[in-house]
Amino acid sequence: MAYSFVENTRFYPSTSSLLSLYASFSTSSMLLRNIYHELVPKKLETFLVSKFLIFFSRRKSSPSYDTFIIDDSWDGLDRNKLIDAARFYLSSKIGPKNKIIRIGKFRGQKNVTAALVEGEKVVDVYEGIEITWQFAKQENDDRSKNDKFYNKGYFELKFEDQYREKIFNDYLNHIVDTSKAMTKGEKVLKLYTRSRGGWDSIDFRHPSTFDALAMDHNLKKSIIDDIDRFLARKDYYKRIGKAWKRGYLLYGPPGTGKSSLIAAMANYLKFDVFDLELANITSDADLRKAMLDIDRKSITVIEDIDCNSTVHNRSRSKSDDSDDESFYVKQFSLSGLLNCIDGLWSSCGEERIIVFTTNHKEVLDPALLRPGRMDMHIHMSYCTSEGFRVLVYNYLGIKEHKLLEEIDGLIQSAEATPASLAEELLKSDDPDVALGEVLNFLKQQKIKKDNEDKIVEEKVSSV
């Protein structure tokens, strides 16, 4: 065994040989390193190292991406508010890389706004995460096929799937909060009307206010108090198990200020107005769709509801109706309407106000008028002395005049509407002339009314 060990060890280099070889290798490596630094500049070295790293990083697996889509509707029922927030948000992200953009300046906006067109992309960075936005058109929209700049469609946002929760829980809320901050102070009320494609809007700039309404002070105060109480009772409505909504019925002769009152309510509340024409409703399902598309913090207006036979009193016989029942085509049912304003479907929106107007309250079905549907009935009567004083101050800027006392004596019996009196006041800026026109008009109205009353009395006595 000893011999074998000695024989084997003679093939290994000695320690001195190893040390000599190491010293030679160290000297050579230092020499090569000095030559490398002399021949290769620092910038070239950095470039080569970066290319080296990129080469090996590409050999790794490519990241996986997820895509969110934001379009105009959700399951065809409710309007997607996130798409409006996205439009405002992206308007501030569009930059020089976007070669084609859609721009505009609208009433009520201080600045020009920009929007994406089809094919353009925006890359946004949120907490180090890259999100790529792209605008696309609805495939089934005929107009979008022919018009590249038609701006109705949807947004796609693409991101690495590892950030999915972060995008969904934080980034989308960031978009909503940012868009609210961008539009703060530029709120312009909208008046919506419904077409086949949904609700279309224009700016609502009706100047009516409660101060300018030709209405008795106590009635105005009761309406304002009711509105304020409604707005402050969100938790109360939830506690008692009722949908947070309020219904108003405005009834009275034409020209008594029903539309002006609605405008005053909208301006007071800063609520948009949705004008729903029942004649355009095709079915109960269409009615539900229309009501579900209405935003919260809004006033839904159904004017002249008495003109639709569907809501007429079901207890009345056909002979009681002045119009031929066969003239009407029932496009929706009364039960469908009731369900939308006070049934299961009414709970799908909150902080809403619905207003019905009618010239003939007596023809409406009692089921439509009960509390919970129409909570407050407001009689819009002929102009009173107090209401006329408001008109005089609005139109002429005066509170006292020698003709006002005589006018007060006629105004109650003449049965004149605020609209007709306002028309007389518009005839001159001179208080003497304008009030003289009002006085003559009231005298004629009084004669006309007396004659009508006399004819009615004669008819009654002859029976």
Can you characterise this structure?
The structure is a single chain. The chain is of the alpha/beta class and 463 residues long. It folds into 3 domains: 65-138 and 150-187, no CATH class; 200-310 and 330-379, Rossmann fold (3-Layer(aba) Sandwich), CATH 3.40.50.300; 396-453. It has helices spanning 2-9, 15-39, 42-58, 82-91, 142-146, 164-183, 217-231, 234-240, 258-269, 284-292, 334-342, 366-369, 385-396, 404-414, 418-425, 431-462; strands spanning 65-70, 73-74, 78-79, 101-104, 113-116, 121-126, 129-137, 153-160, 190-195, 198-203, 245-251, 272-275, 298-302, 352-358, 376-379. The strands form 4 sheets. The chain has a 7-stranded mixed beta sheet, with helices on one face. Strand 6 (121-126) and strand 7 (129-137) form a beta hairpin. The radius of gyration is 38 Å and the shape is elongated.
Write the layout of secondary structure elements.
Blueprint: H1 2-9, H2 15-39, H3 42-58, E1 65-70, E2 73-74, E3 78-79, H4 82-91, E4 101-104, E5 113-116, E6 121-126, E7 129-137, H5 142-146, E8 153-160, H6 164-183, E9 190-195, E10 198-203, H7 217-231, H8 234-240, E11 245-251, H9 258-269, E12 272-275, H10 284-292, E13 298-302, H11 334-342, E14 352-358, H12 366-369, E15 376-379, H13 385-396, H14 404-414, H15 418-425, H16 431-462
Parallel strand pairs: 9-12, 11-14, 11-15, 12-13, 13-14
Antiparallel strand pairs: 1-8, 2-3, 4-5, 6-7, 7-8, 9-10
Helix pairs in contact: 4-6, 13-15, 14-16
Q: Give the CATH architecture of the largest domain.
A: 3-Layer(aba) Sandwich
Number of strands: 15
What is the count of distinct domains? 3
Instruction: Provide the helix percentage.
Output: 40-55%
CATH homologous superfamily caption of the largest domain: P-loop containing nucleotide triphosphate hydrolases
Count of helix runs? 16
Tell me the strand percentage band.
Answer: 15-25%
Chain-averaged pLDDT: 79
CATH uppermost class of the largest domain? Alpha Beta
Gross morphology: elongated
Question: What integer value in Å does the Rg equal?
Answer: 38 Å
From the helix content, strand content and strand pairing, which structural class follows?
A: alpha/beta
Unreliable sequence segments? 1-9, 321-329
Describe the strand arrangement of the main beta sheet, using strand numbers: 10-9-12-13-14-11-15
**Can you summarize the main beta sheet?**
7 strands, mixed
Organism: Jatropha curcas
GO molecular function, one term: ATP hydrolysis activity
Domain AAA+ ATPase: 244-384
GO biological process, one term: response to stress
